[in-house]
Amino acid sequence: MKHPDDDNELFNRLEAEMADSGGEVVDLDKARSARNESADPTTRPGSDPSADPETGRSADESGDPTARRLVDLPTAKAAGPGYLGRLLAAQRRDVVPAWLKSTAELKTATGWVARHYAHSVGYHALRTPVYAARLTLQAPSGAAKFLGGTMRWVADREGEPVRLAAVRREDAAEYLKLSRQRDGRVRLRTLVAVLAMFIGLGSALAIYVLAPDWLQAVSVSAVVMALGFAGRKADDPVIHRAVELPKAVKLTSDIVLRALGSLGIPAINQAQGKGRDGFEFTAPITRDGPGWRAEGNLPYGVTVTDVIERRDRLASGLRRPLGCVWPEAVPNEHTGHLVLWVGDQDMSTSKKPKWPLLTSGSVNLFKPVAYGTDQRGRWVEVTLMYIAGIIGAIPRMGKTFLLRLLLLIAALDPRAELHTYDMKGTGDLDPVGNAVSHRHAAGDDDEAIEYALKDFRALREELRRRTKVIRSLPRDICPESKVTSELADKRSLGLHPIVIGVDECQVLFEHPKHKDEFEEIATDLVKRGPATGIVLLLATQRPDAKALPTGISANASARWCLKVMGQLENDMVLGTSAYKRGVRATMFAWGDKGIHYFVGEGSDARIVGSVYVDGPGADSIAARARKARELAGLLSGHALGEEPETDASTGYDLLADILAVVPAKETKVWSETVVARLAELRPEVYAGWDSDALAAALKPRGVSTVQVGRRIEGKFTNKRGIDRSQITAAIAERDGKRDAG
Ligand SMILES: Nc1ncnc2c1ncn2[C@@H]1O[C@H](COP(=O)(O)OP(=O)(O)OP(=O)(O)O)[C@@H](O)[C@H]1O
Predict the structure, then answer these.
(1) pLDDT, greater one: 267 or 22
(2) N or C: which end of the chain has fewer CB within 10 A?
(3) 373 CB near ligand 1 (under 6 Å)
(4) Residue 128 is labelled as binding a ligand
(5) Where in the chain is the domain with CATH 3.30.980?
(6) Residue 4: is its pLDDT beyond 50?
């Protein structure tokens, strides 16, 4: 779009030049049109920018002080970065193509080729007897063809039309010449034929008399097959194709231009109307994975998003199914740089490579794991640690399946503690929940909401505990102040990954009574969870500010957006102004189930088709995950049939309990007295605690024990104890500076 400042600048510069030359006011419209013409992307190169657009002469040449002057300096062409500058900014294409660099892709491609030929060989081997029988049946006709052909050759039948033409012209000299040539040729060919016959018959006789049976059989078969082959009919081949390869039409520049011309974008149509291309190819059209890739610049002012918006028309212009046509913008390029990838097959129906984790293998959540494929069939990976993610889509597009897939991946890391909430209540998350989850609930009834609320509160406590543990760790063990795979392995620290998945999260965030608390805790988990090893994954079918509070959607670092209906939902899931940048999940078709835009931590949006794992598949993966946990002794909570109340490890608040047993008038109390009272209060948790255990439990909560002196029976005794004011201060800090006293 032309900026109004451009006109002002143009006007000012024209005025300045006129003042220099004492000229009059210039027709700005004409100057503008001259400028626009020189700015047309498809203008032929080589035209002199300083020349008058009408006379072809430059203003200086004409000597007319009122002549219009062009505002671009003649040196404008040379301006801009020099050769080195351009080299620095140049984009280098890969020397080795991506598919050759990836061993997984190479293996997949080799596997496909091997399977293709194995199939062909098997197909033909099974049909060999049929082929032999058909060739034998065709052998007599082949023999007749062979004999007839030989006779015609000996009799020089190919020269006959020429001789007959000489007869018709009554050209005696020519006819005599041709006849003599024919007689000579027939004599020679007869000799060759007779010789060949004797050699053939002699060989046959020799084989009959001298050769072993197998050689006789092979020779006779070979002759019969050869005669059968000679007797084949053009319209009925003996050998049929074992594999019908899909015929993908080659993408040519003409097809691309035709398709772009059919979009109804005025700038392209105008350029094409004037006989120009309306698109400037910047690289040859090449094969790229199972499809074609075209790349180039759209006319000035036309953006890639204009094309993406009309993807269905583009598909019509290319005469390809919608699922094959993927126009994309290139990050860090100008907005008119289009990459058009046209697949051989529809992405939603094309055959996907087998997901390696489907049948075996485990996961380290701190490392990338493949969870889907892009348009080109290449694996796309996600690292589930250090993220908070949101999944959004209209109903029935595969949102729950995607969430379940991510949770299954998490389940395959035995260290991960899963909290799964299926607020839709249809049991889609049950395979994971029942097999491995520490906490799991389905449905939106009061019981499930209470359960979730209790768990969220406990998770907030856990988050706080973790931040303190991380803070108390020495720098060399925890150099980045975040949980690492090594720290997660140390069970004593309790920093294992926690993955929370909530399907239809709007049920929590719109709950009439608890919505604020859910929102507050979830926002905290999204902001501080990733560094402490807590991952929150939220899925919703109604991504708006109520269903997905902005504090959460703005801070999520991973986003998965399946088909949505409008810009608002699109940007809600994919981030502000994603729609404007051309990242539009609105373009997905209804049949594009599981296909989504994925924006990972700091990476550009990619189109991904997630791996399809159905219910039974999910069951078997979850069973595998359960087994691994059982072996490692890491199965806990819901998966063991435990209810949260009976699980003492997270269901208590030590600081609050101390306040409960130490009245305000007792400012300092010995630890042994505190643990005795605590054991009375909550024996299932505190029974067996001693002073040291209390000190160890208080340390991550930011409280240390102090020396407390007492005079007992006239004797002064010093022992470790707690200072009540420290406990109230810790609670105040923990609860956001609220007064806990
Ligand atoms: N990756 C995939 N590939 C192919 N088909 C898929 C994929 N994921 C999901 N589907 C299909 O899409 C259907 C809908 O999936 P799912 O139940 O996850 O949708 P949803 O968006 O969660 O719907 P709702 O909003 O009603 O819960 C599934 O029944 C499944 O057959």
Answers:
(1) 267
(2) N
(3) no
(4) no
(5) 253-343
(6) no
List the Cα angle 614/618/619 in 5-degree steps. 120
pLDDT per residue over 580-602, tens digit each? Answer: 887 889 988 888 899 999 998 66
Q: Is 397 annotated as a binding residue?
A: yes
Strand partners, 561: 392, 597
Question: What distance in angstroms lies between residue 311's CA and the mean position of ligand 1's atoms?
Answer: 23
pLDDT per residue over 664-706, tens digit each? 888 999 999 999 998 888 777 787 788 888 887 887 677 888 9
N- to C-terminal Cα distance for the chain?
63
Residue for token pair 């022992």: 719
What is the DSSP track for 578-642? Answer: TTTTT--GGG--TT-TTEEEEE-TTPPPEEEEE----HHHHHHHHHHHHHHHHHHT---GGGGT-
- The span from the CA of 15 to the CA of 432, in Å, is 74
- CA–CA separation, 580 and 567 (whole Å): 9
Neighbours of 553 (CB within 10 A): 24
Alpha carbon distance 205, 706 (integer Å): 117
DSSP per-residue letters across 375-423:
TTS-EEEE--TT-EEEEE-STTSSHHHHHHHHHHHHHTSTTPEEEEEET
What pLDDT, in 10s, does the model give residues 614-629?
Answer: 999 999 999 999 999 9
Please tell me whether 55 is known to bind a ligand: no
Question: Looking at the domain covering 253-343, what would its CATH class be?
Answer: alpha beta
Q: What is the pLDDT of residues 171-203, one digit of tens each?
A: 899 999 999 999 999 999 999 999 999 999 999
392 C-alpha to ligand 1 centroid (Å): 12
Q: How far is the CA of 401 from the centre of ligand 1 (A)?
A: 5
Ligand 1 center–CA 594 separation, angstroms: 7
Question: Is 395 touching ligand 1 by the criterion CB < 6 Å?
Answer: yes
Average the pLDDT over 345-362 and give the result.
Answer: 87
β pairing state of 388-392 and 558-561: parallel
Query: Does ligand 1 lie within 6 Å of residue 424's CB atom?
Result: yes
- Residue 650 confidence (pLDDT) above 60: no
| Ligand 1 site, residue 398, Cβ cutoff 6 A | yes
- CA of 603 relative to ligand 1 center, distance in Å: 25
Atom 30 of ligand 1 has which residue's CA nearest to it? Answer: 398
Q: What is the largest CA-CA distance in the chain?
A: 157
What CA–CA distance (Å, rounded) separates 530 from 467? 11
CATH fold of 652-734, please? Arc Repressor Mutant, subunit A (1.10.10)
Write the pLDDT tens digit of every residue in 109-130.
Answer: 788 788 889 999 999 999 999 9
The answer to whether the CB of 399 is under 6 A from ligand 1 is yes
Closest residue to atom 16 of ligand 1, CA basis: 398
Q: For the purposes of burial, counting CB atoms within 10 Å of the CB of 25, is it exposed (0-12), middle (13-18) or buried (19 or more)?
A: exposed
Atom of ligand 1 nearest to the CA of 424: 27
Instruction: Give me the half-sphere count of Cα atoms (radius 13 Å) on the Cβ side of residue 480.
Output: 11
Q: Is the CB of 438 under 6 A from ligand 1?
A: no
Q: Is 542 a pocket residue for ligand 1 (Cβ < 6 Å)?
A: no
**Looking at ligand 1, which atom is closest to the CA of residue 426?**
27
Q: Is 423 annotated as a binding residue?
A: no
Topology of domain 356-632, per CATH? Rossmann fold (3.40.50)
Phi, then psi, of 722 in degrees rounded to 5: -110, 150
Q: Can you read off the two tokens belonging to residue 417?
A: 């503690």
Q: Using only C-alpha atoms, what is the Rg of the chain?
A: 41
Q: Is 395 annotated as a binding residue?
A: yes
Q: Where in the chain is the domain with CATH 1.10.10?
A: 652-734
